[in-house]
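To whoever is covering the structure queue this week,

Two jobs came back overnight. Logging them here so there's a record in the thread.

Job A:
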Amino acid sequence: MRRNGPHRRAPTPSACPPPVVIQLDPDAPIPPINPTALQQPIAGLPAAEATAAIVRVSGAKGSWKGVTGVADLTTQRKASAHVRFRAGSVTKMFTTAVVLQLVAERKVSLDGTVQDHLPGLLPGTSPRVRGPHHKGYQVVPAGFESAIPYGEGHVVDMTETSVTSTWASGDLVSTVADLEKFVKALFSGKAVPPGGIVAYGKTGARHGYAAGVGATRDLSRTLVYSVNSTDAKASGQNQRTLGIALAVSAR
């Protein structure tokens, strides 16, 4: 596979974790935000499985923001809520929204292909996250090239990495504030014509970064998070991100 520009060779990825589906009763009332429940899944960072986390929750019954951990293991600089991160497969929501906009405008057909309209466009060339950001790390075996000791194991800095290392990689770099704006535009019918979905969410992961967005259909509750997971592409569910998703509706 040809790779463009300087990059870090990624560790062999494990199978992607299956999506988490949370069934919601459309008539069930949304509980008030529970700060204690939301703080719990991001407490204690940096830890073996993650170095930093950002969570942003909003809706009709209040809002909550949380940030923990460090932006850089070497300098121990504190994590910040106003940074950019790799959103991974959350990119697919943006691509889908644009396609459905064009379908609604009768400019493209769902039977067509991207290459029919934009030949040579796919999936990205820059290995960098431009602007302020947290560093992303991946746990690796001892002896791995450029590995640094971390707790009882070792990690490698994956902040600058090729986004073409796996097929259909998400190349979106964003912030929790911008992803929140997108979720609200999507579910309010501003991005695409409104549908009949009660609730929807999407996760994304690149080595060093695990992200997710979600919302109820009426936007009474929205969620955006970024967790600098040290094994973001591992098989099985990341307990930190699962805890965040469950805490959003905790009573």
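Job B:
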Amino acid sequence: MVRTGRGPEARTRQGSPPSLLLTLLGDYWWGQEDPLPSAALVDLLADFGVSDVAARAALSRMVKRGLLTSTRAGRNTFYAMTPRAQTVMQRGAERIVAFGIDDDDWDGRWSIVAFSVPEANRAAREALRTRLRWLGFAPLYDALWISPHPRHERALAELAELGVTTTTAFVSSDAPGGSLAPQSAWDVEELAEQYRGFIAEWEPTHAALGQGAIAPADALLKRTQLMDAWRAFPGIDPDLPRRLLPADWPRAQARELFLETYEQLGAPASVRVRQVIASYAPELSDRVVQFSLVSDPPGPRPAWSVVPASSG
């Protein structure tokens, strides 16, 4: 089988190959039970500069993690998403959609989680911090984390999943900390600069879309990179209530730019995915979807574009 083109250029990826692959499957193969040829998945990852060896290693790791299942037909291997993978993607999509919606109905209460993890168990400590940040918590002190949202029960569930049982969680109108204001757990000025940097980086892509100047392979790269860039914000921004933020807070502008650009890149990006899949399994190419964050509820839309004859 002749390989499809690798796109206009292989760019530096932001996520690991397994993370990148999960994003691609979520964006273009959401809800599908049919397995995809491994060669097609390897080719998709190649568009992002992932080598064949690294791509196949990523597929193996995802099988071991229970995110993919593998089957063989002759000399060919096929991969399908597991229910666990679908759940992971569903939770991620819900968090992305809910994140950054400005409102003024905060009740002034803080979720507070205190825990104890042995210093020697560094892997658990790092995993714990990552998960708590994703839920909108930040450390007011090393082992005392706070969030302006009622997520203490979800935090306890994450802690229990990691085997951390020495925990305390509660909700309070008076966050502890003595002379420290609760919002001091976050560097709001630095966060604002990151939002402004995001806007400056992605406004040219949004403008190019209005001129029809983005080819399918480039659209696939940009849409995935855009999602990677935006998905970092829920891990560093706790969605602080509006009353605790500066008047010129740039998150709303950044969120609107992200949603509009992500949606508009969907059609041309799905063309590239269909091109690759059609090279190995033509009967599956019409199953490709475009995941939409603005549909109600968020979910897949049909990829209506016809696959062009050229694979560029």
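Note for Job B: The first strand starts at residue 36 and ends at 37.

Please reply-all if you pick these up so we don't duplicate work.
Q.
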